[in-house]
Each structure stands twice: as C-alpha cells, then as structure tokens.
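Example A, followed by Example B.
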Amino acid sequence: MKMSTIPTLLGPDGMTSLREYAGYHGGGSGFGGQLRAWNPPGESVDAALLPNFTRGNARADDLVRNNGYAANAIQLHQDHIVGSFFRLSHRPSWRYLGIGEEEARAFSREVEAAWKEFAEDDCCCIDVERKRTFTMMIREGVAMHAFNGELFVQATWDTRPSRLFRTQFRMVSPKRISNPNNTSDSRNCRAGVQINDSGAALGYYVSEDGYPGWMPQKWTWIPRELPGGRASFIHVFEPVEDGQTRGANVFYSVMEQMKMLDTLQNTQLQSAIVKAMYAATIESELDTQSAMDFILGANSQEQRERLTGWIGEIAAYYSAAPVRLGGAKVPHLMPGDSLNLQTAQDTDNGYSVFEQSLLRYIAAGLGVLYEQLSRNYAQMSYSTARASANESWAYFMGRRKFVASRQASQMFLCWLEEAIVRRVVTLPSKARFSFQEARSAWGNCDWIGSGRMAIDGLKEVQEAVMLIEAGLSTYEKECAKRGDDYQEIFAQQVRETMERRAAGLKPPAWAAAAFESGLRQSTEEEKSDSRAA
C-alpha cells in the first residue's frame, strides 16, 4: 500500500517551514536562508575576549596614537567625565554612624580641606612617579578604561619620613597584567588575575616594564587587599556578564570600520594629490621600442647613443621655442607632439557622504555624538543640539559614576584611613562605629567633574532657577550640573557681599533686574512662537 506524505506548510519564502518561520527569525535560517551560514559559537566573555586580548588592546592603542577621530573620542571622555578638576563632595552616612548632621558637616569640611591639600599638590606627591595630581590620575584612568576597557591603580606606602602622608598611588598599564612567564590561562588564573572559585579577584601578577627590551621579564604578585581591609590594587571595569575577568575596550565594535576609514582617507588623499600633480602633458609619437627603451632603459651602446641624440634634439628644439603655461604665448610644438591641459577634477565623488555615514556608525559604537566626534556642528539647530547634549550627558554621567568615581573613592579611602590614624582629621566622639568597622559609611562621597555643556546659557539658567523655585531641584544639584560646589559659591557670595558693604557699594540689583527682563523676553518669544504655530 502506498504511504501518503503529510504536507508541510512553508513560510512566504517557500523554503522555511512555517513552524520555524513563526518563531524568532534570529535563531532560525532567516528569510530565504540568509542566516543559515551564520553560526557563531556560544561562549562566555572570557572565552571570547582573552584569546586575542593582547592583540585587540594593541590595535586600540595604535588607533589612539595614529587616528585623529580615535584620539578625539578619548579626549571627549576625559573632558566630559572628569574635566579640569575632580572635586570631592564628602557626605558620610551620619544616621548610620550615629552622629549628628552638624557634626558630620564639620567633619566633612575638615576632610575636604585636607584632601585637597594632599590630592592637588603641585609637587604631585600623591603619585609614585611624581608626574600627576589626583585629577590627572583620574583623567588617565578614564582614558585607560576607554581604549583598554579597564584601569589599574596600585596603592603604595612611602617609607621616607619627610612627608606627612605616606600613602601614594601608581598608575599601572593593563599591558603589564599577565600570567607569570606568559603561561596559558587556567581556572584560577586568567590574563594575570588570580581568582577564587567564586570568581572574585585575589591578586594580580604585574610584570616589570621591559623597555628597552634587554632586561629579563619579572612578575610580582600583588594582593587585591591587605589583611586589614585596605585596598592594595584597584581594578575598575564594567562586566557585561558573570565570570568576566578583564575589561573589553570600547573600540572593539568599531575597530574594523575605523581602520578601513583610515585607509580610505589615505587613499582619497593620494588620489587628490595625483590628480593635482600635473597641469599639462605633452604627447609624442614614439614607436613602441623607443618608448620601452625610455621606460626600461636601453641595453646596447647603440641604443643609448640613439636615445641620447634624440633627447638632445628635443631639448634644442624646446630651448628655442619654450613651452610655458603662465605666459600669453602659444608654443609651437615639435611635429608629432601635442599639448594636453589637465583640468582639475572633482576629488570628492561622494566621499564626504560616505565618510559621514561611517563616522555616525563609529560615534554610536563609542558612545559619543557624531558632531562631537567629527567636530562638525554646521547642521544642528538648538533643539537637536540640546537633545544630543542631554543624551551624551547621560552616557558620560554613567561613566563618571561607575568608572571615575569608583577609582577616586577607593583612592580616597586609602588616604582617609591614614589621615584618621595620624589625627589630621578627627572622628566625632559619639560615632557608633570606627573607621575599620564602617569604611563605606565614613568614606561615602560624591565627585563633581566637568559641567554640562551650555547650548544657550540664558535659557538654561532660567530653567535652573525655575526648578529651584518650584522645589523640584536644589542649589547643590544645579551647581553640580555646572561643575561647581554650591558651598564654595555660597561662601564666596557671603565674602563678596561683606566686601561690597564695607566698601560702601550698593548690592548688585541690576543683575536681578536684567534676569527678570530676560525672563519676560523669553516668555514673550515662546508665546509668539506658539501663536505662529
């Protein structure tokens, strides 16, 4: 008996079964089987990252050194996340510590004054190499995190008795973190990081700087923390899933496109140079053998003499009737020669549009705006500029919180412990916990970096004033958006008011009047715009 075949329903492409087509297309073969050959292996982050880790970071380093857009992306991270001064705003958890708010404020003022004296010393005593202030170290850490995906700082102890504080820090390049003797990764030692069975880092293997290459490479194991809980080696990166040991640099998703754009720019420049190299050419009726002799060189003495004689005749002819392009005379060429003027051609040929498309893709991968990356603000209105600035501000604030602030807070805790032990600052007497019992509570702080870019200063100041007056914001938050500390501004305003009063000057009422006038004008403009719409 003939067996009947059960019909199979197919999707719109006529190839994929309807059951598979009705599911997620990304897991199937796709429309027309276009995804059938795309079968990437399912790997953990370490399995995908660590085998080519050194080469990937070396390529990112090369891009930052030799590619202007890559260097600009790093500069944007430094300027918008950190700025020119990374300011401490100490705020201990006074309720948890069992102290009064006024006691906490007084303690914070002492801590902030002592920290600024230590961290921003022009002699760079905070740095082992004596090259960086604290803000410079944070800027370097942010740049390091951008093109290496992570940052490392070693907390050290200066044994010289000439300084009040012995705490120092050393910036450590991620290139120096590797397995001892360059051995392969194992379960508990991956890419120079020793981890326990839970995946927490126990210590790091740091190799000595081998430049200029004649010294044998040595590794030193540095624990993550000392027995008392003090940080010994600071490692900051943003993991994307569990089990990740090292950070992935931000250039991985756009590295291929950036290198291709670099090659395209060089090729375009060479093409423009070649097209502009010759203003005119003279065509001559040479036979093939003579032309080849000119190009490849004559082999026999007879050929060389014949070519030399022919060139001499040409030179004698044109010396009597020189060919000039700048003069008014029309040259009379030798019989058989023709003068061809080379007109300048369009070297763009759609290149600018294609470059913009690539730069937008690269900017999206790097987390910055196209206008910021290309430094081209020609096509932006106020609305688009404000929307773009707010979007990039959110990205930079996330990086400030989880990269720059983490590095800064751990460095600050190392110093604060020593400052308390040396009685440079004194803990409130009624505190419920000691520093060792509540490190995070005593060291709780915020960090103020660069302010948000002002697109229209008048409108943004009006917005800040309205938010404060409506109770939706505070002076602290609005000043922090501008990169300022409200306490410093208030103290300076008090001093200026007292000095003006002592000098017999009137209070600056014109400033308030000017602001009210600008506010009314802005309101009228908005009403007229709404009526026109």
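Example B, a separate protein, is given below in the same form.
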Amino acid sequence: MADGFPVHRGDIFHAINRLRKLKLNKRALEVMEWVIRERPYRPKELDYSYLLEFTTKLHGISRGEKLFGCVPQEFQNELLYNNLVIACLDKGSIKLSLEYMKKMRGLRYPISHLVYNHLIILHSSTGRRKTIPKILSQMKADKVVRHVSTYNILMKIEANEHNIEGLVKVFNDMKRVEVEPNEISFCILATAHAVARLYTAAEAYIEAVERAMTGNNWSTLDVLLILYGYLGKEKELKRTWGTIQEVTHVRSKSYMLAIEAHGRIGQLSQAEELWTEMKSIKGLQSTEQFNSMISIYCKHGLINKATAIFREMKVHGCKPNSITFRHLALGCLKAGLVEESLKTLDMGMNLTTSNKVRYSTPWLETTFSMIEIFAEKGDVKNAEKLFEELNKASYTRYTFVYNSLIKAYVKAKIYDPNLLKRMILGGARPDSETRKKFYLLHFYPNNIVDNNVALGKIPLQYFSLLIVQIVPARTHDCKAGCEGLFCHHGISCIHKCKVLLRLLSPSFSSTVLVKFSPEGKHECPKPGVKAHEWWKTAEDPHQSTFGDKED
C-alpha cells in the first residue's frame, strides 16, 4: 500500500491460511486487526469470522463473545455463528457451543459439518466414545450431510483403537452413501492395515493413495515413506524420497521418517547418509531427531552405535525422554544385555509419559519387539509386564500380539487355562498359530515339546474344546431333542464341526460338549463328562474324529 499497490481480499485470505497452518495465531490476528482498522477493502463476513477466530484463540471465549456483539448486524449470519461455535469447541467449552447451536436452529441457520467434526474429535477419547452415535444422530436430525472429513475422523478413531473391523465398516458406510474417499482416507486405511501386519490389503490401499494424490502434498508423501518402509519396497521408497527432495522446503520430520523407513528395511548405510545430511542442512535441535537414529540402531542390536548417538544428544543439550530409554532397552535386549535392558526400561518408566506417546505406534511396536524377545526366552513375568501396556492401548486386538505372549508360556512350560479367555475377550481372533501353541499347552502342560517341532495337522476339535470352556453357560431347548446340544442363539442345531470355532457368544453353553461324526451327525456326551475333560475319554487323543479333512 505504501508503494501505491492495492491489497486484495485474496491476498489477505492466502496469508491468513498460511499463518493458520504455521500456527502463528498472533500474527494472523494482527493482520485481521489491520484490515479492519485500515480498510484496504470493505470487510465482509469472512473477514469478521477470521477476526473472531483468532481473537478467541488468543484472548478467550469472553472476548470472542464481546467481539461478536460488536460485529455489524448484517454480518451476524451463519458463517459467523459457525465460527463462534468452533472457537468455543477449540477451547473445550462443549456446553456453551451446544447453546449457540440451539440458537442457530432457532434462527434457522444451517450448522456446518465442521462443527460436528470438532464435536466428534472432542468425544473421541475412550470414556466419551459412547456419545459419538448420538452426535451422528443429531447431525442427521439437523440435515447436515457427512463430509469426507467426517468419515476420515471416524476412521482415524477406529484406527487409533486398532479396530480393523470397525475401520472397514466406516469405510463401507462411506462408499454406500457414495461419498468419494480422498487421499487422506486411503492413507488412514493403508497405515492401519500395515500396523496390523495385513500387508496385502495395505498394498492395495497404497495404490489407491497414489491414484488419489493431488500434487506433491508433503503430508501424504510422509505417510508413503512410512508405508513403503513397512512393506519393504526399496524402489518405491527411493522414488518417494526423491519427490520430497524436489519440494522447496524439506522438513526435519520428513528426514526422520526417511531414516526410520530405510532402517526398517535394513538399509543402515542409507539411513546414516540421511542422518548426516539432516545434521548439515537442518541441524540437530530436538530429541526426536536423535530418537530416529537411536531406534534404527537398537532395532538391529547395534547398542554401541546407539550409545554414541545418545552421548551426542547430551552434547547438543537435548534431554532423553521415555521413548529414548525404551529404544535403548530394546537395543540392550537385542544385544543380549538383559540386566542392562531392565535397568534402562525402569529409567524410562520413571519419566512422565503422556498417553499420546504411550498409545503411539512407535512406542507400541518397540514394546512388542521386547515382548517377542522375552517370549523367546520364556520370561513370562517381564512379557506380562509389558503386555499390560499394550493391553491399555488396545494393541492386543491383533492376534500376533497374543501369540507372542502364548509363546512365552510355551517356552516357560507354564499352562494357564485363562489365556484363551483373555485373548477372545480382549478382541483378538485365534488363528492357526494360536491353535498350535494351545495344543501344546493343553495336552502337554508338563512336557511341552519345542515349538520348532513339526506338529503335523492338529485336530480341529481340540482347539474348539478350549473355546467351549471359556464362554458362559445358558440353558436352552434343542429342536433335535437331545439335551445339552450347542445351538446358535437358540435357533438351530449345529451339525458341522467348523462352526465350533464361532462359539464366542455368551448365548452358548460351556458345561457340555457335542461330539460330531464325519457324516455331520451329532451325539451328546455321557452324563458326568465335563467338556474340558472329554479328550481324556478318547481312545487316541491325537486322532481326529472328523476324518482326514477338516470341514
């Protein structure tokens, strides 16, 4: 303006959006105050909404409400109301925001989907999640159409809970109502499946991410670095990093993700080159930068190199945090230094750690790697101690996590009849590996053979019997006329042995057992024979009564 050039509304909006992304709220407020004061153009509702947003963020809700009353009446419309509600939600004032939403309904102003997005996020914690269906019902009542961002938030909540079934259900609902998923949607799906070690599905979603990408979005490229690291795709990882380097400003976060991705696929030399490059270009200013390299060395058991980075961290004035000690504890375990590992683990536990860190994927995966080592050693005590951390974060929904814990019991030759109950009630589905381990625990509690011995084909009914023991009892009438037959929700009798694997519902009996023949017929056990002791009455407990083929 001093040089005689006009300032257009578009220039201001572009500057405000950039300042918001950089979280420079104070500077953004100064810009909007200047616009209202100097009037380079006639302010409209969007200008006042920006002014209201940043005033509330910096000076609180009371100042925001006072400013709202000072805005010209013609601009006190749906946009300003929606921004006021969002500002209240940003401050965590749910009750006040609901009052303004009620006022908007009275004025017949439409409520934005962004308001409901904020409400869902505020209720995404474990204790508040039951409220989300009510929020979605109110959203429908207000005739607010769910935006793709709404579905992305719902999918992210399920992914954070490690609930793959819930995640896929939300995605299918999204497709059913013909809402087009974007690259963020596919990134959430791909990452969740990669963390769950469902690599085939993850690869399919990665291809969808590549197709849905709009330009060189650095956040999407960062996710691709992580995903190609999980899948071990060296060429694609190199290509993605090359694309990131073409961006004008490469963030330190991108360097850290690239280092971890190369380390995950075993390219330590490439990871070290990126580490050196980051040191020279970006400098070492945060603990997270050092943690990225420490994690790589510790995953490969290079504890001496990890210790050198740890010392360098202190030289640069960065304090180690709990994740630093967790990585070092893993490195000690990989190197066979069990005592040092336990001491390092205790040092990390003594530090204050937020739930955000404890529930983060790097923390959980590092903890699980330690459980695997303890399981191999048959150290049930330490495996259970770390397993409890994963259980609090719902990471134990994955079958492979429980299988590692069961392996600890197998190696220690300890039989715990409640293991399968814990597994199923914890949300994990037993698989073939679980069957093998429970076969060993159930039939050889005092003489467990080595896990590497070829077990051959384990009879399906033995594994089913274990499931039968853990479900609550219920009396029911059988249409076939025999007492104690398992019925599916009391509707029809089960005549196929494969259905026994579905005995996870409280509606099934746990006190009796039905024995099936290859022809599909059933017979009730003799009175007095308990389900968990039936195998003792068999002539040969290693011979399947279902024939050679398992149905």
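On Example B: Residues 457-537 form one domain.
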